[in-house]
Design a protein that fits this description.
Layout: H1 13-19, H2 46-51, H3 69-81, E1 86-90, H4 93-104, E2 110-114, H5 119-132, E3 136-140, H6 146-152, E4 157-163, H7 175-184, E5 188-192, E6 209-213, E7 227-231, H8 234-246, H9 253-264, H10 266-285, E8 290-294, H11 304-310, E9 317-322, H12 328-337, E10 353-356, E11 374-378, H13 384-394, H14 397-400
Helix pairs in contact: 3-9, 4-5, 4-8, 6-7
The structure holds pyridoxal-5'-phosphate.
Length: 406
């Protein structure tokens, strides 16, 4: 069995991050697991070679595609911090999203996807699941109640997909209530838990498969792309593992090794970024140019009550909605005036980022109405006062930049 079931189960998060996913010796040997690269695994006999496939659900060395000790070390640590039992590493966060959906859906079946879902997942659902595979895809209002969800369930509904808070717009979902309703109908609950990493324990809230874009805080250094699927029941593990193998999913051992290294410092990074993110969120909320801040940990933010009930902390990714008089030209000018915030996709690294939400959000259930244009901010590991000073010098561009004529 993976080493997450060992004597570390009672240790605190920070201790588990330091001690799990290691070779296992405390007295002699390197602290870190080896970085193995490889395809062929030599077997002791032809009989052993024939038996190898039987072990495809285990951490067993048969062929590079099925993972090696470097993958296993990361899998064991991740399964533990997500509160599950087994973990499959895949090539990117998006690959993890797609493998989860493919694992549970067939032609003619139905899935429910939140309208706030990460954009490329929407694209996968529309192009691949609906158009090519003939899966029925319905989008739902992410903050719907359990009763409203029950009304959307069809006889062929097989998957409820969750992402909380939602991408770009940060709607917090009532995961326990929605998951309980789905489970009562025999529907699998898949959740993208990237924002909630560690702060939200998916299996304690009724989720069957938890998806992580490890590219974000787990890797933490903007230098890897990686995804994971964690399960808590053996049948889910078989379903997910078999699908990942069928699609030839693989992740470079170098990226696994870097992510394991990133995880060793996750606790201190997350804590610092949470505090700094909250300080920045409060700074934004006090500015006259800002209509509202979409940060679930702020008491006045939408979804705060659910966040407070279900999460033990918050990461440093949030949205800022500007008053309607600040059009996209003025917001572009402000973003471009920033010196410490980069303009770029992704989040969870050590560097701060500012990304326009306008023009990049699709909604199909109801038009998006935030009351103004929004910018997504990711707060990195820079000094908080320096980040505030940077914003202070960039905000005047909101008032001086020419407006668009449109
Ligand atoms: C919520 C969420 N899920 C999944 C992904 C996909 O991760 P990756 O970039 O590793 O494919 C992202 C990427 O931004 C994301 O924000």
């Amino acid at each position: 069995m993976p080493d997450h079931n060992n004597d570390h189960d009672t240790d605190h998060f920070a201790t588990r991050l330091s001690h799990l996913g290691r070779p296992g010796t405390r007295t002699h040997g390197f602290v870190n697991p080896p970085l193995h690269r490889g395809s062929t695994v030599l077997m002791p006999s032809t009989a052993a070679r024939r038996e190898g496939w039987k072990h495809r659900y285990d951490q067993y060395l048969t062929y590079g595609l099925q993972g090696n000790e470097t993958h296993h070390a990361l899998e064991n640590l991740l399964a533990n911090i997500e509160g599950g039992t087994r973990c499959q590493i895949v090539s990117s966060g998006l690959a993890a999203n797609c493998i989860a959906l493919l694992a549970y859906l067939r032609h003619g079946e139905h899935c429910l996807i939140p309208d706030s879902v990460y954009g490329p997942v929407r694209s996968f659902c529309d192009r691949e699941l609906a158009d090519r595979m003939g899966v029925e895809v319905s989008y739902y209002r992410p903050t719907l109640t359990a009763a409203e969800l029950a009304a959307l369930i069809r006889p062929n509904t097989k998957v409820l997909y969750l992402e909380s808070p939602g991408s770009h717009t940060f709607e917090v979902q009532d995961v326990p209530a929605l998951a309980a309703t789905a489970r009562a109908h025999g529907i699998k609950v898949l959740m993208d838990n990237t924002w909630g990493l560690h702060f939200f324990q998916p299996f304690a809230h009724g989720v069957d498969v938890s998806i992580q874009a490890l590219t974000k805080y787990a890797g933490g250094h903007a230098d890897v792309l990686l995804g994971s699927l964690v399960t808590n029941a053996e049948d889910d593990w078989h379903t997910v593992r078999q699908t990942a193998l069928s699609y030839g999913q693989y992740a470079s051992p170098d990226d696994c090794w870097l992510t394991l290294r990133g995880l060793r410092t996750l606790n201190v990074r997350l804590r610092h970024q949470m505090e700094s993110g909250l300080a920045l969120a409060r700074w934004f909320a006090a500015r006259p140019e800002v209509l509202r801040v979409l940060h679930p940990a702020l008491p006045e933010a939408p979804g705060h009550a659910l966040w407070k009930r279900d999460f033990s902390g918050a990461c440093s990714l949030f949205g800022v909605v500007f008053r309607p008089e600040f059009d996209t030209a003025r917001l572009d000018a402000m973003i471009e005036a920033l010196r410490l915030f980069g303009i770029g996709a992704s989040w969870g690294g050590f560097e701060s980022l500012a990304l326009p939400t306008y023009g990049s959000v699709t909604r199909s259930v109801a038009p998006l109405d935030l009351g103004g244009h929004a910018v997504r901010f990711h707060i990195g590991l820079e000094d908080t006062a320096d980040l505030i000073a940077d914003l202070e010098q960039a905000f005047p561009a909101l008032h001086t930049a020419p407006m668009t004529s449109a």
